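Here is an idea for our session: we take a single protein and study its fold together. Once you have written the record down, we can walk along the chain together.
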Amino acid sequence: MGKVISLNISEKRGTEKTQVSSVNVIEGFGIEGDAHAGNWDRQISILPIEAMSKIPSNKMEEVKNGGFTENITISGILLDDLKIGDVIQVGEAVIKIQHIGKEEYKEHGRPYIVSREGRFGIVIKGGKINIGDFVKTIKSE
């Protein structure tokens, strides 16, 4: 079982996200107050901190010092345990992973790793998520 180590939202796309202590997640929509929420297949973004091991040494400092670009940062779950089609519970919310990474990789800052290893999905069940909440896989494809 993993846990939530950071929650982040932004009002405008293409900007760094601001860390918050809790979020309200809306079924079929995403995180209340986040610019990426809406009726599409990337309502919410998750970065497993374990993905940091995949960053080349020449990019590490840049990524670590970049601002948050993912909604939820988690720890304690292996990357291989977060596949497309998997359903995970994060706090009260339930999320189905639809994508790993983006079609176009970003080359600078934190988007470097999020664009490659971030998990993007849809909200199956809404609810509250707090920093420190548990994360667990409830259905694996």
In short: The chain has one domain: 2-139.
